[in-house]
Automatic annotation (TrEMBL):
This is L-gulonolactone oxidase. Its EC number is 1.1.3.8. SUPFAM superfamilies: FAD-binding/transporter-associated domain-like (SSF56176). PROSITE patterns: FAD_PCMH. GO terms for cellular component: membrane.
Length: 588
């Protein structure tokens, strides 16, 4: 449906106004809800992720949940389920994994939450070692480390993750320097509770040191080996970082993409396709004596007024359903400009931004998430994605491409963009663009097999099952291009179903991981249907049904997998011809 000139201008103004409203930083906030909700105390429960919906939109149930507060209680909880051969999965405090890693399967399974296993066990400043319980949030970990004069060298950008959750999914920051940007590369020991025979009380604690051969399985595990109790990390003396964000045109982006990670220890790149721009993050370590007390408070993770978040989502839905590419691009460009004007959330002193570089201590720069940290305010404000408010609702795809292939992949993405730049305004979140981070090759069996560039994309998701996204074929082609043409690997904690199809075959040491899995949990009590599918044990993550490609549950092979009644048909990709995507008939 087309819009009149007046409607278009009104829609642009509305969305820009709301976008600016989202950028207001507030002191209060309602933290996200517990992902586990039970109707009778700790029984008759449901488990979801922080976004309130798994990729297939199913409601995942469990018979009960336990909240151990000590390792002894954790052992007892594991023993209780093993003795009755119940399925069991671990739930974290905020459950940020998009796939169904935390679903025990069926209605009779048990959840073990690590929300109360959230303390520092010990810090050895002289040896630069820090031991924490697995449910400790990254936010609390880096603050406790800084108080002791230590820094965790690398981490994801969002500090609402637990150390156990980060190890389950291979979560990372951005670096090719030293050991690289993945948290699991700094694990030198851990304690994990696994099933055991009756003669050993049905549960045992396995303690793994840095030289234990099983550590390479446990430090990226998808949660299928047991419950991690404690993790010991090697730390570094407290240091500072200097950050400068530089925006340039994207004419030489392909030439820079592989090299940038070698030039700057914490560098990343963000591509804004419609604008033809790249934001280069020049981010390096500086001496701790360098003046500055800067803060990274990423705007996406701010608390925002709930009413404005709801209105912004309504406006976004209107643009999706009735807007024009012109209106979408005008709004997208102004949203991106608003983020730049607010320096993306960086301040020089925790309050205001005056200039680059922003210099600050590692724990104030490496991660953020203030919408998580504020006192409860009765949902007057919230994180943008809080499922209770029907605000922001999106997909998050993350995949890594070998650094040696990144240049060719970027060229292909630019070729796709050049065919019709306007399509990218609706295809992905223009405030965020395509974020490129660097991940080093790992000895972990389910880690990266070679130095890689990780591409992260956020894009619109409808609350209505089977409802097409405008220009959905853009992201779908990019994903298939990355995963199939360039042999990319999906992030274990992100992505839609089809991204995992055949992924395990790309890990040369997957068989070694499965050997450890069979020793630690021979009955597969910590596995579920999803992990069996992605690990290649049984079945496929693809769900073949009507509109499955619209939902990312499959790659289309028939028009019925798209939405033919709404004009979306299964077509070859525009640049990567082997791709099969749902294209609107007039766009192809």
């Amino acid at each position: 449906m087309s819009m009149s000139h007046g409607q278009t201008r009104a829609m642009e103004s509305l969305l820009v106004l709301l976008s600016l409203g989202v950028l207001v930083q507030l002191a209060g906030c309602s933290p996200p809800p517990d992902p586990v909700i039970c109707t009778h105390g700790t029984s008759n429960c449901t488990i979801t992720n922080t976004y309130g919906s798994f990729t297939d939109r199913t409601i995942c149930r469990a018979a009960k949940v336990t909240y151990p507060g000590t390792e002894q209680e954790l052992v007892a909880a594991v023993a209780a389920v093993v003795s009755t051969k119940q399925k069991v999965k671990v739930a974290t405090k905020h459950s940020h994994s998009i796939p169904k890693l935390a679903y025990p399967g069926g209605d009779e399974g048990t959840l073990i939450s690590t929300a109360r296993l959230n303390r520092t066990v010990c810090i050895d400043v002289a040896k630069r070692l820090m031991t924490v319980e697995s449910g400790m949030l990254l936010r609390d970990l880096i603050e406790a480390a800084a108080a002791a004069g230590l820094s965790l060298p690398h981490s994801p950008y969002w500090y609402g993750l637990t150390i156990g959750g980060m190890l389950a999914t291979g979560a990372h920051g951005s670096s090719l320097w030293g050991k690289g940007g993945a948290v699991h590369e700094y694990v030198v020991g851990l304690r994990i509770v696994t099933p055991a025979p009756a003669s050993q009380g049905f549960a045992v604690v396995r303690e793994l040191g840095s030289d234990h051969p099983d550590l390479d399985a446990v430090k990226v595990s998808l949660g299928v080996l047991g419950v991690i109790s404690q993790v010991t990390l090697t730390m570094q003396p407290l240091f500072k970082r200097s950050v400068t964000m530089v925006q340039r045109d994207d004419s030489d982006m392909a030439e820079k993409v592989a090299a940038w990670g070698h030039l700057h220890e914490f560098g990343d790149m963000t591509w804004l396709p419609y604008q033809g721009k790249v934001i280069y993050r020049q981010d390096d370590r500086v001496d701790v004596s360098t003046p500055g007390n800067g803060l990274n408070d990423l705007l996406l993770f701010h608390a925002s007024p709930t009413r404005r978040l709801i209105d912004a989502r309504v406006a976004e839905e209107r643009l999706q359903e009735n807007g024009t590419d012109t209106a979408r691009c005008a709004a997208a460009e102004q949203q991106a400009a608003a983020f730049e004007q607010r320096s993306y959330g960086f301040t020089n002193d925790g309050v205001s931004f005056t200039r680059y570089p922003v210099v600050g201590y590692q724990h104030r720069i490496q991660a953020s998430g203030t919408c998580l940290s504020s006192p409860e305010d009765g949902l007057l404000t919230s994180c943008a994605w809080d499922p209770r408010i029907q605000g922001s609702f999106y997909y998050n795809s993350g995949f890594s491409v070998a650094a040696s292939k990144a240049r060719a992949f970027v060229i292909d993405m630019q070729r796709l963009r050049d065919r019709n730049p306007d399509m990218f305004c609706a295809a992905l979140d223009s405030k965020v663009g395509v974020v490129m981070r660097y991940v080093k090759a790992s000895s972990a069996y389910l880690g990266k097999k070679e130095d890689s560039v990780d591409f992260d994309i956020i894009f619109y998701r409808s609350h209505t099952n089977g409802m097409p996204r405008v220009h959905a074929d853009v992201v779908d082609e990019i994903e298939q291009m990355a995963l199939r043409k360039y042999g990319g690997l999906p992030h274990w904690g992100k992505n839609r179903n089809f991204a995992f199809d055949g992924a395990i075959a790309k890990y040369p040491k997957a068989h070694e991981f499965l050997k450890v899995k069979n020793r630690y949990d021979p009955d597969g009590l910590f596995s579920n249907e999803w992990t069996d599918q992605v690990l290649g044990i049984n079945g496929t993550p693809n769900v073949i049904k009507k509109s499955c490609a619209i939902e990312g549950l499959c790659v289309c092979s028939s028009d019925l997998h798209c939405a033919p009644e709404q004009g979306y048909l299964c077509k070859p990709g525009k640049v990567y011809k082997e791709a099969r995507v749902c294209s609107f008939i007039t766009d192809y």
